[in-house]
Structure formats: C-alpha cells, structure tokens
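Project standup — Tuesday

K.O.: blocked on the structure for the chain from last sprint. Re-posting the sequence here as requested.
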Amino acid sequence: MKWIGQNIYDFISRFRNDVYLESVSSGTIASGGNLGLDSNNKIVKAIAADGDITGVTAGTGLSGGGSSGAVTLTVDFSEFSDVTPVNGDKLATLDSDGSTEQLTTIADLATLYAGTGLTASSSVINVNAEQPGITQIGTLVGLTIDGNKSVTPGDGAMLHIDTSTITDSNTSASGTASLYAHARIEGPTLAATNASVTTTDAATLYVTRPVAGTNQTITNSYGIYTNGATYTSNLTNAGSYSQTGGDMTLYDATNGGNPTISLGSSATERLKIESIYESGAQGLDEVRFTTHTAGSSANDGRFTFYVDETNTFQIKDSLVNIMQNGKLTVGNVDILSDSSGTTTLNNIDALDATTEATIESAIDTLSNLTTVGTIGTGVWQGTAIASAYLDADTAHYSATRQVTHHMITDDIDSDVIYISLLDSDSENATATNKQLPFIAPTAGKLLKIFLRTTVDYSSETFTWKLYTRTTSQSTNGAAAEIGAQSGSGPTNKTMVTYDFTSSLDSGTNAIAAGDKVQISIEAGDGATANGNYFITCMWEWDLS
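H.V.: unblocked you, prediction finished:
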C-alpha cells in the first residue's frame, strides 16, 4: 500500500453483492441490454424468459405486434405457397388457430382452401349452385348443362345472359366497325377417324322445341323465339316456324344474286319462288313461280288460288280453269262470263286477222248444215252462213269472199312466172306486164290458191308469192313481196291447196285498200316440163 505523499500506482476497490443507485431514472437499460433496474432501483441482470421486451415487429406472413403490453401476432395462411411433405404422402398444415395438424393424404388438400362460391369435403371441391364467385371462365374443352330442378317460370331457367352495355372503345371517331356480335358460334370442321364416313345432318346450332310435360299445356312451342331478328344465314328448322310481328326481308345485293324461297318436302317436291335479276346487275327483271314434282300423276304441282277460302282459279298441266259462275274481265269490263256452265263472250270491239280467219274457218264447217237456227229476225240456212255478218242486232257478215280463175301454159324451169289477174293465159316473166295486177277495192286477204296441172309435178316444190304496191307509192312501179307459201305440186289427177291463212314461209297475206296486187309461181329445182296450169284464187274483202 502507498501512503499519502507518495505516488499511487494501483487502486482496486471491491463492493458488496448488492449495489444501489440513486438519481437514476427508472427503466434505464444499461449498454448491451443485459442490465436493468428493479422496482427498488437495484441493478439486476435481465433474463429473456421474464424480462422486459420493449417492442415486437411482425414479419412476412404475420400481422400485429407492438411496443409494450400484451402483443398478438396473426398468421396470414395465404402467404404459405409451399408445404413440405412429412411422413411420406402426408402433409403438415396449420389450422386457423395456428395449431399444427396433419392431412391424411395429398387428396385431402381440397379441404385446405375452397374460396368464394366453393365448398370442399374430402377430395372434392364443389361449386355452389348460385356461383357468386365465378366471374370469368377460360377455354373449355366441353360443357354440358344438365340437371332437373324446380323453378319459377321466366326467362333463362338453365342459362341466362343478362342485359349489359357494351362500349366500343376501339373504333375511331366517325369510323365504322365492320361487325359486332353479342354471341358468336363459329362453324366447326367435322372430321372422322375412319374412312368414308357420311353424316346425314350436321348443324352448328341444333334447337328442338319444348314439349309439354305433366300437368302442362303449351300454347305456342318455339325452337327459337325472338323479337327483333333481321337476318339468319342457312337456317334449317325441323319444326313449325311462327313470327308474331315485324317484316321478313330477304335481300341479296350482288349481281345475279337471284334470292330464292323453296317450300316443300325436298328439292324434287317443292314450290320455288325466284327473284330473277337483270343480267349482270341487281335490277328485278322477273318473278318466277316454279313447281318441281317427281310424280307422274296428272296435274301434280298445279297452282290453285283460293279467295275467301273458295277455289277461284287453277293453273293445271294443260289448262287454266276459272270457277263456275266466274268472270274474266279487262279493266273491270266483262270479257268472259259464266252462268251455270254457259259462258258468254262480251264486249269484243275488234278481231285481229288470225282470230277473224279462225272464225271464218269455223263458219265454213257449218256450210253443209240445213239450218243453224234463228239469227236476228230470220232463219238462216247453212249455205247462207258464209255471207252473214253478225252484230248485236242484225244478221250479216262483213267479210265477202271472192274466187278468181286463171290459166297459164308454161315450162317454168328456174323462172319466176307472174300470173295475170286481169285475164286468162297472160302470164309473164316480167313483173311490170300490164295484164298482171289488179287493184284491191277494200282491205282484204289472199286466203288460198288451188292448182291442177296437165303434167305430173308431184316431185316439184312450187313457191307462191304475194306482192303489193301501196297507195303511198306511185302506181306504175313494181310491187314488193309481202308473203310466201310453198308446197308440193299436184299430179295430173289431183288438186293441191296452198294455204295463205297459216304457217306461211314468210310475211303476211293481208292486203290494204287500194293496193296493187300480184302473185307469182316458181319451181324448186328449176327443171319442169311444159304444161297447163289451172289456178283458182280465193280472196276475202271487207265490205262492211
């Protein structure tokens, strides 16, 4: 030990076990965090098990914590992405209260977390019937909606697509979107594993109509029910179709589109209605109604028109039929009217040449009758019919027939021989001979030419021609051909008739009032013998 006055080299002090500090703030922790003060300000060593912890911080997968007092940590199980196998195929997991449990098998993972709208038991995750948590479904390989259930009648008992607002956020201002489809079903490609497979009916969408079940009556059963359909491509419906309102439109705005509607059982048993366009354009040119029938029965495919549910008009294989007691009118004027099977011709103001000739021919067939009955105010004999002109009140006939006779002797060969109409045997090969023509007093016709010859000309073909020169031309000029008729020549024992009233080779047989008229004959092969030709012409003149 050193004493006062000397230098001090060492100074060591020892204290008792208990050390008390004064004027030290309560709770002060010494450096290092291992010492502390108790309630008596006694310096003590901190023990982790029961010492003071001044703060707890939550990490990943935990929530809670605090700086004093009781501290609670909550485990977020969604942060557990991996579960390590324990004991082979069995797994350890945490319950919601944090206790450890062991799953029986890997399949029991279904019970771990089902999610909104799902329930789980054992190895099955079930979708709740209301499906409140399903907002989007990805690509499905197949989907079958099945199951019987009791519902309140309405729309969409098994499938309902709710109304929604679809906003086009892509098309530019004033632009045009080429297509919008709320639901689209694309046509599939149907293939087969085996060779030469035939599918009778293939459909992209097959819809069958509802049928009535127990205690149920369906007034209208529809396969598809819509209130605004405007266009359906290649629609095939196996049942009845009904539309309660709106218009049905079928347009095809393409050149030669010719839209068609067919009604029937098949392509060979149907009615076809066609809208025929102009060639290479879209203008409507013709509306065509066609029936296709495979049967051979008479009048199959006929058209029958029912007016007020009464058979009024029919078009059959070879005739048109109007109902008994019906009428045919033009401009609401009766032309044909029937009374109990007796039809009357009415209001005919004029007849064309063909109709007139036909009537005259029919009257000719009556010439051998003794009596034809009462016409007007008298009884007419059959031989008088040809001179009768029939009108509403008086018996007379406007067309008077005239017969002229001519004779030539000639070896025609290849010449054109003009017959003199003024006297006999003045034929000439020059059309301007003064004996040839005559002047028509009124409008008329050349009806027939009759020929007999002294030579057998049956191997020849004779062509007769009719010429006229109208009043609009000078009289001294040559007449022009207006009609021709040909036929075989006669033998020296027969008569041949050349009919100018029908089936002419060319032209007409009509003659105008004041025309200068001529006729000619020529042989077909240009080789004839000299012979006599006895010619009779039948003319008709309108002397009304």
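K.O.: great, moving the ticket to review. Helices lie at 353-364. The longest helix spans residues 353-364.
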